[in-house]
Amino acid sequence: VQLQASGGGLVQAGGSLRLSCAASGSIFSMYTMTWYRQAPGKQRELVARITNSGSTNYAESVKGRFTISRDNAKNTVYLQMNSLKPEDTAVYSCNANRGVISSWGQGTLVTVSS
Questions:
Q1: How much is the pLDDT for 34?
Q2: Exposed, middle or buried: residue 40 (CB in 10 Å: 0-12, 13-18, 19+)?
Q3: 97 - beta bridge partners?
């Protein structure tokens, strides 16, 4: 599966952004989709995950602010990010996983100004 992430940008603290990750080339609905982020000088961390059955889990730091969703008809996973904080600044990447198959999209930069 090929992934294309979009939706990043510059936003003020307290603002919102919605990231999208469009997939092509395989049966999207069968994949677990995960958003990761990597801030400068830090390790990559899991932000949110949604399974093929729709179960979700979130990093503690984003619970209550971020929402992951998927539209299997559009082969797209979304990350709605509200109440953004400067510490959310990072490159956000999406991952598709199904068993031993793991694909990554290119990252999209989110910058939150204080």
A1: 98
A2: exposed
A3: 32, 102
